[in-house]
Amino acid sequence: MHNGSINGSGYGGGHLGYTGYNYYHNGGVSVKNPEQPFSIFKRDPDGRGFLRFSGKDHITIMGSTAFPGASTYELMVRLAELGKTMGLLGSGNNQIALKILPDGTVQAVRGAETEGQGGTAPKKKFVSRINSKTRIEAGKWTRIAVVYDCRKLRLYIDGNLENEVDSPPVRGHDWINHLLVGASNKWVWDPIEHFKGDICDIRIYGRNLAPEEFLTERPAARKKNPYERKKITETLLKTDVSQYSGLSAGNGGLTLTKRMPVLSKKRFAADPDAEYVFTLKMKNLSGKSYPVYIGAAVAGISPRQVYSIPGTETELLQDVKKGDSKIRVKNASGWKTAGFVAFNANSMGTDKPNRMLAAVKSIDSGKGTITLKQGAPCAAKAGSLVREHCEGPTYNWAGAVFAQAGKEVTFSGRLKGIADGQPTAGFFWPGTRQFQLVAIPMGAVSAEKPLVFSEIRLERIIRK
Fold first, then answer.
1. CA atoms of 202 and 77, how far apart (whole Å)
2. 231-302+394-463: what CATH class?
3. What is the topology classification, in CATH, of domain 308-389?
4. Phi and psi for 171 in degrees, rounded to 5?
5. Regarding the domain delimited by 22-213, which CATH topology (the fold level of the hierarchy) does it fall under?
6. What is the DSSP letter of 241?
């Protein structure tokens, strides 16, 4: 089951937290598309949800989702138009392809792997392809199912068998097994034949279901939950040059003319119960593409105070006095000389941000002796925990966008809640109290080659 966010494309395209044999996704889906940066999750007037694809976007589901063996793929589709080939499902290694042909015919395809484990070539090449007899109509919900039982590939429309074809099992299908929704997959992260229309009730099953096991109708309309909290959105920052340092007005927006961080002048409280949405539209006029990182500059916390090396927690073997240059620990086998000793730590990480740090000079793992560069910053008792901390990213990133030369691109990212223990993607660092919006271009920026922001917005979303 996956109830998180499924995003964009590529290795960062979203991950199923668990790889079982029955997946489903609840809630909004954000999509990586410069022209449509916000959620494509919509609702009909009766409250039933669906995903709306514009013909330019898609989503990627990771986590062994394109099964190598027996499997069933179900979905309901509502075409916006006909007249061109449009992909509904695509896989990275020919496990499954499902598409609508220009005349409304549905086609399912399965074939030999393009690449086996470790890049090996397939021993045998084949393509199993079937077309439906029924032609589906635009503007009408239609249920499609593809079933594979390790012998035959079968295609169903509205529960009726349309066609079947022999298709042998392929060992290489357990390699490169992500799934695309809303497009076909040319190879790995290369979507083609984007779909225009609506998709709902996606079910991916690791077994060949019988027709009587298919989903037969759309879920009932969502009933209003009397305990559902009201969503309140507050705009904290907008496209106003007075709210940011490093920017000036010009070129039809807010212009950055030096390679330097863009920072909001105001700091904001990090509410652990709120969600903060960062939205930036920008155009790179340098002539060369580069990434732009966006996130939070956390006040009063340095990366080394929150980033630690897992598995390095250990006990002090003797009392430590403030200023001591050597300490003895129970186990220093996993420590590195480039790190820092964090004193008075705890196994839950609730001591972070830990400001009782001392840089490591040398380590004698055999004796459990750690020599410090400048002495212990505090006293600590024998038996108390220490751990190794390390440097990390300077800022608390919400994500990045690739600023293509000469094109306007849009970034939309979120930070929600305060991480416990180790810094976690999508959350504020442990102990965060205040932050500023920050954006950093990783390319050449100058007065002649500026980066122009047509929109900068920070929103706080709470539920009451």
1. 10
2. mainly beta
3. Elongation Factor Tu (Ef-tu); domain 3 (2.40.30)
4. -65, -35
5. Jelly Rolls (2.60.120)
6. G
How many other C-beta atoms can be found within 10 angstroms of the C-beta atom of residue 401? Answer: 21
In whole angstroms, give the CA distance from residue 50 to residue 337: 53
Distance from the Cα of residue 356 to its chain's centroid: 33
The structural domains of the chain, with segments of one domain joined by +, span 22-213, 231-302+394-463, 308-389
Predicted confidence at residue 322, as pLDDT, reads: 97
Q: What is the pLDDT of residues 284-343, one digit of tens each?
A: 999 899 999 999 999 999 999 999 998 899 999 999 999 999 999 999 988 987 899 999
C-alpha span between 69 and 91 (Å, rounded) = 14
Is 308-389 in the same CATH topology as 231-302+394-463?
Answer: no
- Using the Cα atoms of residue 422, residue 427, residue 432 and residue 435 in order, give the sign of their dihedral: positive
| Sheet with 86-91, side-by-side order of all strands | 59-61, 179-181, 86-91, 97-100, 105-111, 127-135
Q: Which two tokens stand for residue 360?
A: 């490591």
Q: What is the distance between the alpha carbons of residues 168 and 176, in angstroms, rounded to a whole number?
A: 18
Mean pLDDT of 259-271: 96
Question: Per DSSP, what are the bridge partners of residue 244?
Answer: 264
| Residue 124 CB burial class (10 angstroms; 0-12, 13-18, ≥19) | exposed
Q: What local confidence, expressed as pLDDT, does residue 221 receive? A: 53
- Check: CB of residue 377 under 8 Å from CB of residue 344: no
Whole-model pTM: value is 0.56
- pLDDT of 60 strictly over 80: no
- Condensed to tens digits (0 to 9), the pLDDT of residues 338-367 reads 899 999 999 888 999 999 999 999 999 999
Mean of the per-residue pLDDT values for the chain? 86
